[in-house]
Amino acid sequence: MIEIEGLTKQYGSTTVVDAVSMVIERNSITVIVGTSGSGKSTLLRMINRLVEPTSGRVLIAGRDTEAEPAYRLRRRIGYVIQGHGLFPHRTVAENVATVPRLLGWEPARIRDRVEQLLEALQLDPASYSGKYPHQLSGGQQQRVGVARALAAEPAVLLMDEPFGALDPIIREKAQDDLLEIQRKFGTTMLVVTHDIDEAFRLGDRVAVMSEGRVLQYDRPEVLIAHPADPLVARMTGSSERAMRLLSLTTAGEAALPGTADGSAHEGPLIPAGASLREALSELLWRGSDCGTVVDGDGKPCGHLTVAAILARGRPR
Amino acid sequence: MTALDVLLRRPAPARDAPAFPRIDRLGALLALVGAVALVLLPFVDFKANRILPGDPHGLAQVLPTWAALGCEAMFAAVAVAALLASNALLRLTAALAGIVIIAAALAAAADALTPLHNHIVRVAPGAGFWLLLVALGLLAADAIARLHPGPGIRVLLLALFLGIAGLSLAHGTFDRVSIMREYAVNASAFALAARQHVGLSLGSLAAAFIVALPLGIFCHRAPRLQPGILSALNLIQTIPSIALFGILMAPLGALAAHVPLAAELGIRGIGAAPAVLALFLYSLLPLVANTVAGLKRVSPATVEAAHGMGMTRWQTLLSVELILALPVILTGVRIVLVQNIGLVAVAALIGGGGFGTFIFEGIGQNAIDLVLLGAIPTVVLAFSAGVLLDALVEVLDQASP
Hints:
Structural class of chain A: alpha/beta
Number of strands of chain B: 3
CATH topology of the largest domain in chain A: Rossmann fold
CATH architecture of the largest domain in chain B: Orthogonal Bundle
Largest interface: A-B, 25 and 19 residues
Mean pLDDT of chain A: 89
Distance between the termini of chain A: 29 Å
Low-confidence stretches of chain B: none
Helix content of chain A: 25-40%
CATH topology of the largest domain in chain B: MetI-like fold
Helix content of chain B: over 70%
Strand order of the largest sheet of chain B: 2-1-3
Shape of chain A: globular
Radius of gyration of chain B: 26 Å
Strand content of chain A: 15-25%
Order of helices and strands of chain B: HHEEHHHEHHHHHHHHHHH
Low-confidence stretches of chain A: none
Radius of gyration of chain A: 22 Å
Strand content of chain B: under 5%
Number of domains of chain A: 2
CATH architecture of the largest domain in chain A: 3-Layer(aba) Sandwich
Strand order of the largest sheet of chain A: 6-7-8-3-9-10
Shape of chain B: flat
Oligomer: heterodimer
CATH class of the largest domain in chain B: Mainly Alpha
Largest sheet of chain B: 3 strands, antiparallel
Number of domains of chain B: 2
Number of strands of chain A: 13
Largest sheet of chain A: 6 strands, mixed
Order of helices and strands of chain A: EEEHEEHEHHHHHEHEHEEHHHHEHEEH
Structural class of chain B: mainly alpha
């Protein structure tokens, strides 16, 4: 858990972050979203003290971050930046081993950890360990950046526009992979982005920032259904909010038991992992009122009707 | 053939089978220069003693007819290769063979013209010899450039060249050539001059590096002071070397006169002290400027990542920033070393020692062979230093792309 208490950063007479207080839950993904200049990156960088706050404090697991030298604090916190920032003169394995080496781990333990992480991020250790960053694609560089940040098993991972340098198709895959990594390692993640869709896709909770203040900090469906501020409403997009709401729920979560009329199959097949937005689109396209939800093995696990989906698109 | 092809002297892409081989433009120029040198200019100058003006001799006058004709035939073959061969390796072989032939011809001419046990006459390489050597050298350099050899091969070629030259000099092949006659008289002074020359060049480089590296890092960290520091160093560069040596004589002389410790340490108005100090000052700008440029090349994201991972400032500087800046910093070292080797020759004017001693003595005595005894090793030293450091920079640049 990260507790931010009255955190403020001023440069001269300009206040970049203005008395922000928030609590970031353990084992979840929290996203800070805002336009450029909203202070979101500065807020993130005050947590690992790359920026020293003017006032206020940060507690990680109840411990004040000022209690130890900044470089030691940072070794306990994973950090991923836009454009990955990999060391160009070091191999993939050496990059990933950076923090464990700083912490003085045994070479064998470092080797095992590097291998485990590269596998977890779908980079075959045998073929990628010895490569240099410039030999990798953008998506692979980004994954090495995440592996490097996770190397010393940090409880907290900070990410500053981690997918900013990726093209849209790779970005979606990278977002899915990050969700998977979070589930696997249970790391507390704090992600900064300017992309509201990315925020809703990743965030268990989302904070909207503007001019150094947090306007609203809540679960995505609450931000969509009950924006606390006109700016939040504008960002969540009032013309699209129903569809955004649908995209937060998967077909598996919303599936109704059994089949609509008792028969084995009816209508198009909808993967359980697809969002309701995708399910609705599929039903409209096929001109069908009803579809069968199937799990990863293709086994039916329920059904969905257009009416049931539409009901989910209204604020509750 | 595009303009770029001409510039890079790449063969134009073949369209149809050529009716006759294409003539290489550089080769044509060099062959012409070589022919002029061989036919119109003297190959050696024969002097009754070391300061009398020379008596010009062509190749045919000094070598037996068969040998002269053989040499000329072989030069013709080299010229044909320069004109028509497109294979760079063949061109390089021809150029190197040509160099071996003129060196052998020079040695043979000196042997033929020098009466037995006579140490007074001088057989000096003539204008024709030098011009041929330049033409062949350019042909070789062009062929090497076309081959794009890696750093290892370039160092190997240099070692081969120095090895063969050293062996033939040690063997006495050129003992009757005028420059080696001067060497024979000055052998012990030459060894001392060589030590002084290398010592002054490397010593002033080392001193400048120790000061310039922190200064460059400081300039990088304090961008507001950077223009001031760099223009001050730039101003020093604009002072001509002889003037700077002169400017330093007065204060260093005064220092020696008033501070006994300074005098005991060997600091005087003339000698090594002002030489080292001047070279040190000249070295600062390239080293500081390249350190700044090298550090600027390191991506800010990489530096931020290093801090974010929990590296201390020193760890970030040493294991990330300086390592990544190293190829550019070493390029500065290369510039300074080659520059210093040349400037040390001038420092002989104020008693700094080194190969320049022979140059200025030779000028004073009107003995051109003595001048060459100082000039040739200076050029070889600077050339070797350049090749070695270039190779090192390339190796490091490949290691950290």
